[in-house]
Amino acid sequence: xxxxxxxxxxxxxxxxxxxxxxxxxxxxxxxxxxxxxxxxxxxxxxxxxxxxxxxxxxxxxxxxxxxxxxxxxxxxxxxxxxxxxxxxxxxxxxxxxxxxxxxxxxxxxxxxxxxxxxxxxxxxxxxxxxxxxxxxxxxxxxxxxxxxxxxxxxxxxxxxxxxxxxxxxxxxxxxxxxxxxxxxxxxxxxxxxxxxxxxxxxxxxxxxxxxxxxxxxxxxxxxxxxxxxxxxxxxxxxxxxxxxxxxxxxxxxxxxxxxxxxxxxxxxxxxxxxxxxxxxxxxxxxxxxxxxxxxxxxxxxxxxxxxxxxxxxxxxxxxxxxxxxxxxxxxxxxxxxxxxxxxxxxxxxxxxxxxxxxxxxxxxxxxxxxxxxxxxxxxxxxxxxxxxxxxxxxxxxxxxxxxxxxxxxxxxxxxxxxxxxxxxxxxxxxxx
Length: 432
Fold this sequence. Notes:
Layout: H1 2-19, H2 23-125, H3 132-137, H4 142-250, H5 252-305, H6 307-314, E1 323-324, H7 332-336, E2 339-340, H8 342-352, H9 361-364, E3 369-371, E4 381-384, E5 392-398, E6 401-406, E7 410-415, H10 419-424, E8 425-431
Parallel strand pairs: 1-2
Antiparallel strand pairs: 3-8, 4-5, 4-8, 5-6, 6-7
Helix pairs in contact: 1-2, 1-5, 2-4, 6-8
């Protein structure tokens, strides 16, 4: 409305000065009115540009928040990778030590076996099937008998000790071999975890670099557009001011009278417009209050409902506003910033419905009751064999879809018929 008044005012000045019979001043006034009209159109463009700048700034703010989350997740994943590498190194050292012990045990058993074999050959050479009782009864005198009893007892005790030592070492060997196998299995799992984290790390770094590049480009575009518009507006404003100054110097008194008359004529229109604007503002304010009240009411109703419904919808606020973080979602800071891994997200979502469940896939798969996929219901947990068996978990929401913290985009809803998820779904469905 103010822009329209500016056009009217300048046009009136032009016509008024023309009627005074001052051609030079009239021409200048006409030029001033033309510039004012151009500035009005330019101001509209500036307003549009400012709106776009504000809109872009809001998007940039969201993008900055996303970058911050990604950077945090990347940094945490790097720390986890370093810790895992240390664990792997320590485990390898322990395995090397166990393998040395196993080798020593095998050597001792082998040595005892050779001793027993040698004694067996000696007994065979001295009579074939001669046993200990024959040795005793074959003595020629009591003294020899006593001597033989002592010798046989010593041999028997030695054989017994050798056999018992062999059995003990064999059991120890089997135990240590089992321990080594468990260590190796754990090492393989850690290696898989490490590879998965490295993939996520690289993906997040790539996203981060792309987001930063887009942010910088958007900032340059906005600044250039704003600077160009301001430059053009300043140029027109200077020209308009110069013409007005020339008009003022030529016919100040007549110009003052004409402006006064024109201002009075437009004052009434301004009052009516202000009243209408106030009414519109009041109506808009009432509408906003009504919408706000409706939202609060809807929010309260949802919170009051609780149960599986609240579990399913709890994570919706994080869609497009979260980042996958290995080991994330177990602190207030992670939850506030939308940093979850799959099992922690499931545990958190269930807590929003009033349930307390574990935050690891291994614990979750055995926590509730397993049901057939043909009987699946919204709220059931679904498991996938990703980097390991039951390596990923999500919450079924119905319609063949599930919500979860996915390593690619954070919290999102995906279809179980998607080629990837269909290929890794292992059929495990758990009802809490």
